[in-house]
Amino acid sequence: MEYLPRIVDAELTSALSGLSAVSLEGPKGVGKTMTALELARTAIHLDDPDEVELLAVNRDRLTAGDRPILVDEWQRYPYSWDLVRRAVDAGAPPGSFILTGSATPSQPTHSGAGRIIRLRMRPMTLDERQLEQTTVSFAELVHGERPAVKGQTGMTIIDYAREITNSGFPGIRPLSDEHRQLALDGYLDRIVEHDFAELGHVVRRPVALRSWLTAFAAATGSTAAYENILDAATPGMSNKPTRSTTSAYRDTLSRLWIIDQVSAWLPTRNPLTALTQTPKHFLADPALAARLLGVGPDRLITQPNPGKVTVVDGTLLGALFENLVALTVRVHAQTNHARVAHLRTRGGTHEVDLIVERDDGRVLAIETKLASVPTDRDARHLNWLASELGDCLLDAIIITTGTQAYRRPDGIAVVPLALLGR
User: Fold this and answer.
1) Kind and range of the H or E run holding 308
2) Which of these, 9, 33, 265, 400, could form a disulfide with 341 (CB 3.0-4.6 Å)?
3) pLDDT tens digits, residue range 160-197?
4) Residues with Cβ < 8 Å from 337, sequence gap 6 or more?
5) How far is 27 from 35, CA to CA, in rounded Å?
6) Could you tell me if 193 and 53 lie in one domain?
């Protein structure tokens, strides 16, 4: 398979230029191994039992090859983390080790703080899929340059619905619709039937876990209470999973990087009060949420004739589109050393879908809208935030499914997701 460049490539190269060891982390199938192999000169694949046995007998194998040395799926032999850490302590030069992991192991491992830095890798953003030539730079927006916003795309809401269900996992995207569905089903089955057990969590009722995951998918883009998610997963059941059981579900799914929630924004520099602290719920890839809910593009949108498009479930499509936007924004924010959160006041009087915050406390505010041309009502929360933050607001944008990028008279940028790039 041809390697498609990823945004994290530059981050990994930069980190290895000055650091001895980097751990590339993310869910299975996200492309960590292929990305690491672009730089590695030696590879030790610990998902191969023979490699684990050889390393257990001769630990020097881990440091003997040409560098960078890739230690792939290190959590299969957690002691490999400590071997790398000790090699760094012993003076390993910059660019010595790349570790990749699809889960945080349950058994104790030294944190590696100060020796091994962690770098998150997520499924492919929309621009990494190379569907369109991007015209709006995320870096310029988050650096406060207030760039001119322009460009046109041929992507329509139908294309976005397809991209939501096509997945951002590199090995799943190229498959036919039928095979992609089977691959996503297999991916989810493996989480329930294998990955939990691999982390030491025995699932006594796999059906209950699958139901909880489906209810979580239905809560995509919301701040629904976990009690409500549990109720939705177990309607009419008298023997519902306990709170400790569902907490264990969340913890394990987070360790597998399947749950990828956006935390609530709690500003330290800005005088905003009455903000909620509830995270916004997302899965790592909106295609997983769509598959759990049993929806394909035709269940989200229909086109009864060439001139007419009908949105079947606008609420669900909007939530899944927001998941795709959040995925794309988080990848770009990471490479620009910024954090992503969401804003919601108690009672929901004001909310902004995504807040991208720099280290200096200044922010880029983002709303997502299915509408191709947002209205003044769609911009009201951004305008409220601008009046509250003043110069602390770097820029404000509405990400849409439209065809044109432009600035509104109030200065808010309107950007089709397909045109948002690096």
Assistant:
1) strand 308-311
2) 265
3) 999 999 999 999 999 999 999 999 999 999 999 999 98
4) 358, 359
5) 14
6) no
Range of the domain at 135: 127-159+262-421
The predicted model scores a pTM of 0.94
Residues whose CB falls within 8 Å of the CB of residue 244, separated by 6 or more in sequence, listed in order = none
Q: What is the CATH number of the domain that holds 105?
A: 3.40.50.300
Per DSSP bridges, beta strands 116-120 and 406-407 are unpaired
192, 204, 211, 212, 412 from 239: Cα distances, Å: 20, 13, 14, 14, 50
How far is Cα 34 from Cα 406, in angstroms, rounded to an integer?
37
Asked if residue 22 lies in contact with residue 99, where contact means CB atoms within 8 angstroms, the answer is yes
Are residues 116 and 133 both part of a single domain? no
Within a 10 A sphere around the Cβ of 48, how many other Cβ atoms? 13
Q: Tell me the two tokens of residue 361.
A: 């406390």
**Residues 70-90: what's their mean pLDDT?**
92
Burial degree of 26 (CB within 10 A; 0-12, 13-18, 19+): buried
Q: 369 pLDDT exceeds 70?
A: yes
The two tokens of residue 44 are 């030790």
Q: Which residue's structure tokens are 């990305």?
A: 35
